[in-house]
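FORM 12-B: Structure-to-Sequence Request
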């Protein structure tokens, strides 16, 4: 709890212990960052999350080869089962998987509540035919897709690719990480706020705005009922991220929606 609010961190990356250090180093190299939480394991997430006052975590990991999809989805599901109600899991998908429907059915059977993709790290555009097939199946199954969006260095996850997808799949729920466009936050919000099937999260965004008022403006342009709280663990410290969020001049009702209500509704969580 934070100031009486139930807190769901809807954007947490976790890795198996054996490869966690390498995976964290890979993300650091990709973004030129130094992860605030160097381990990237569930144990570390639960520990720093507790310090931050986080009540529940939505965990995910991204496949960079088709072969990894099944093992990652099983890894996430196993951790959810072990964590006794503290974690909700998202599966992942790779656009070159031979049997996308089969993998989606497996993911759903594992009890995973959505799909996480990262077009920039996967190095496939978000409108690749394999992803388009997956969006159709997600619409049918009622599973939201959390995707990394935006990067001034690449075009794979640009709003210009996402807008036609939002139009083609009106029943698909997309959560565009980082206000729909990392590093192009304001441009993305301006272009995409009008699409009702797009939700966003505020991870990896708040400290990079020139003024906290810009973040408040982005929240209100989408509407607080379409924004989720997330930290992008292990890249940032959940303790510091809570402080960045609490520094925003939002109403209690807006905070309640962003901290927990929107994630509960989108992922069908009974917490
Ligand atoms: Zn992410």
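FORM 12-B RESPONSE
SEQUENCE OUT:
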């Amino acid at each position: 709890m934070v100031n009486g609010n139930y807190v769901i961190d809807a954007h947490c990356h976790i890795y198996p212990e054996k490869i966690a250090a390498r995976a964290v180093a890979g993300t650091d190299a990709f973004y030129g960052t130094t992860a605030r939480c160097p381990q990237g394991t569930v144990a570390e997430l639960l520990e720093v999350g507790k310090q931050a006052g986080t009540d529940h975590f939505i965990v995910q990991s991204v496949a960079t080869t088709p072969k990894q999809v099944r093992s990652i989805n099983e890894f996430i599901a196993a951790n959810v089962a072990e964590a006794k109600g503290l974690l909700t899991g998202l599966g992942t998908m790779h656009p070159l998987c031979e049997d996308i429907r089969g993998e989606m059915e497996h993911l759903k059977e594992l009890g995973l509540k959505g799909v996480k993709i990262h077009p920039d790290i996967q190095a496939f555009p978000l409108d690749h035919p394999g992803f388009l097939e997956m969006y159709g199946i997600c619409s049918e199954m009622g599973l939201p897709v959390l995707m990394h969006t935006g990067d001034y260095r690449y075009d794979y996850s640009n709003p210009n690719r996402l807008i036609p997808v939002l139009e083609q799949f009106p029943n698909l729920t997309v959560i565009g990480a980082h206000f729909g466009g990392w590093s192009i936050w304001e441009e993305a919000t301006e272009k995409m706020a009008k699409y009702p099937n797009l939700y966003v999260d505020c991870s990896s965004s708040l400290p990079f705005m020139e003024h906290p008022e810009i973040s408040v403006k982005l929240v209100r342009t989408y509407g607080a009922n379409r924004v989720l709280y997330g930290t992008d663990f292990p890249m940032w410290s959940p303790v510091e991220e809570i402080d960045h969020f609490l520094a925003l001049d939002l109403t209690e009702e807006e905070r309640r929606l962003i901290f927990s209500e929107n994630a509960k509704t989108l992922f069908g969580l009974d917490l």
